[in-house]
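Quick question: what would this complex look like in 3D?
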Amino acid sequence: MHKGKGMKFVGDSRISAERKPNIPKDYSEYPGRTEAFWPNFLLKEWLVGAVFLVGFLSLTVAHPSPLEGMADPTNAAIYHCRIGTSCFYTNY
Amino acid sequence: MLQKMYDWIDDRIDITPIWRDIADHEVPEHVNPAHHFSAFVYCFGGLTFFVVVIQILSGMFLTMYYVPDIENAWKSVYYLQTEVAHGQIVRGMHHWGASVVIVMLLLHTLRVFFQGAYKKPRELNWMVGVLIFFIMLGLGFTGYLLPWDNKAYFATQVGLEIAEQVPFIGGDLKTLLAGDPNIVGAQTLTRFFAIHVFFLPGALFALLAVHFILIRRQGISGPL
Amino acid sequence: MSEEKQQVSRRQFLNYTLTGVGGFMAAGMLAPMLRMAVDPVLKEEKHGGLINVGLAVEDITNEPQRVDWKIDQVDGWYESQVSRSAWVFKDDNGDIQAFSPICKHLGCVVSWEGSDQYPNQFYCPCHDGRYYKDGTNVPGTPPLAPLDVYEQEVKDGMLFLGEPQLREEA
């Protein structure tokens, strides 16, 4: 970043009066090894994301999330996994 | 029009360098599935974040209908699920997302582990990642109780028993989590709600920010 | 293809596609959530039936009397009984009138001859709002509309009241 003498500011601020053209590097001049994050790489990532989202939404539509009866501390019948027993993985 | 609005703002607060910093950098070939298909493993981190975004959004919307109170929690969830249009889908997104995010997170961790991407200089980011993993587990544990159904209640009962097994401070830890030494009830639910909705997400945001900033500072690890 | 035509650069094309894909993802995520959030607006208003307020028609006089009754209110997941009240009387034509006591100014509760200074009027104590016996607001007092009127029906000699309705004529 250009600092020091010769820098012109807008008013008394730190924002430079000279506007840099808002055109990023053309990465095609460096072929092969890398590509721009925006928009090239991000597009590929988001394509994957879109496919993932479709799959995920299909899952949520196909399988409504379960909701059992309201919590009843006296009704541990189905959950015999009470204090002191060791059956954490056998129940659910 | 948009360009003019952008220019107007940019004139005043010089935002171009900010978004340039975020968007304008190069990505090496070896993480690009278009070059080597096996590079799809690099997607897991991004997908984890995507599911986190889904969780945040769906969670925000769910609180419109949810009450953290033992009388009404279950009723409000039942109402949301049965009476509100698309309520079932939004709750479904949050419910399934909670599992999917753990799966994605583990796949991402496996990728980092087997590629040795955690090695110097990236050890710090590995540690931050492990902390994020713990936060996620905490979110899963506290969120599980919130619908206040029977399964949630006894799962929390079990979870609290496990917390009690911690040497020396176990008893106090359980009381701290449950809000009462003996009862899993009204105070437990509000505590879990606060932890689930405010404390853990706050910590998660901070850690995610660190995680991402470190990636940008250190770059993606080299190819195998 | 003329050279004049603006070419879409590769970068621009990718930007548009990126915006499209991003929009698709945002829409896919947000559509169910927004639909859920706006559900109260789109829900059909449930119309409660008319309810017996426990007042026989023959007991209704020319003098407005206050009637209180309870209705079952369903508020999302919360069901409760809330009380309603009305000022009921027979007007000069012998028709039964049932006014809502909710002041049209700021929602306080009006009562018949609530102030000694204004006989034969409904009076709201909050800001001295007044209504004539036919429910129209007295010009120059805070309320800007007449009192709401309950839907009503007489069955088996008893008065049944429903929802308060805005009055068209002012």
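Answer marked as accepted. The radius of gyration of chain A is 30 Å.
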